Amino acid sequence: MKSLVVDVLEKALKKRGIKISREEIESKIEIPPNIEMGDFAFPCFFLASQLKDSPHQIALEIREKIGTETPTDFDDVQTNGPYINFFLDRKNMAREIVWDAITKKKNYGRSKIGKGKKVVVEFSSPNVAKPFGIGHLRSTIIGNSIANIADFLGYKSVRINYIGDWG
């Protein structure tokens, strides 16, 4: 969703004649401390020296460039002082998530973020001189779950069960 906010801001800033990279826009986007202030906020303080205008006025001008034709993913886009606040359409977002889960089935959430990277997961480590207890089972299940998540994200996971205390 943050990338959608970046897209909208990038277009509006271009219309306003402000040259700023996509990465810089993304780095400036904040999450407001209160949900009544929106889901994402874009502060305009840093533009004041460049544009020789007040941050509040800059926010109003950028909001005007965004226009009323905002994507359906937003309930509203407002200015609040020097901030442009974006309110997400939660019903539409939930509908999209459910649709993605239905269509992608077992691949929902899969990514290649860890492609070419390795992760080592060590778990269990029971004492061979003592009985295997429920605590060992718990850490084994948690460790295996973490390794499975890493695999799902494209990492090459190496599972290690270190037998430490030979007694």
Describe it for me?
The chain is of the alpha+beta class and 167 residues long. The protein is 43% helix and 16% strand. It has six helices and five strands, in the order H-H-E-H-H-E-E-H-E-H-E. The chain has helices at 2-16, 22-28, 48-51, 55-66, 90-104, 134-152, and strands spanning 40-43, 74-80, 83-88, 118-122, 156-160. It has a three-stranded antiparallel β-sheet with strand order 1-3-2, covered by helices on one side. It has a two-stranded parallel sheet with strand order 4-5. Helix 1 crosses helix 4 (55-66). The radius of gyration is 24 Å and the shape is elongated.
Task: Write out key terms for the chains shown.
single chain, 167 residues, alpha+beta, three-stranded antiparallel β-sheet, two-stranded parallel sheet, 5 strands, elongated
Give the termini separation. 54 Å
Characterize the largest beta sheet: strand count, sense, and whether it forms a barrel. Answer: 3 strands, antiparallel
Strand content: 15-25%
Structural class: alpha+beta
The oligomeric state of the chains shown is single chain
Q: Count of DSSP helices?
A: 6
What is the 3D shape?
elongated
Mean pLDDT: 86
Order of helices and strands: HHEHHEEHEHE
Low-confidence runs of at least 5 consecutive residues: none
Number of strand elements:
5
Order of strands across the main sheet? 1-3-2
Cα-based radius of gyration, to the nearest Å: 24 Å
State the helicity in percent bands.
40-55%
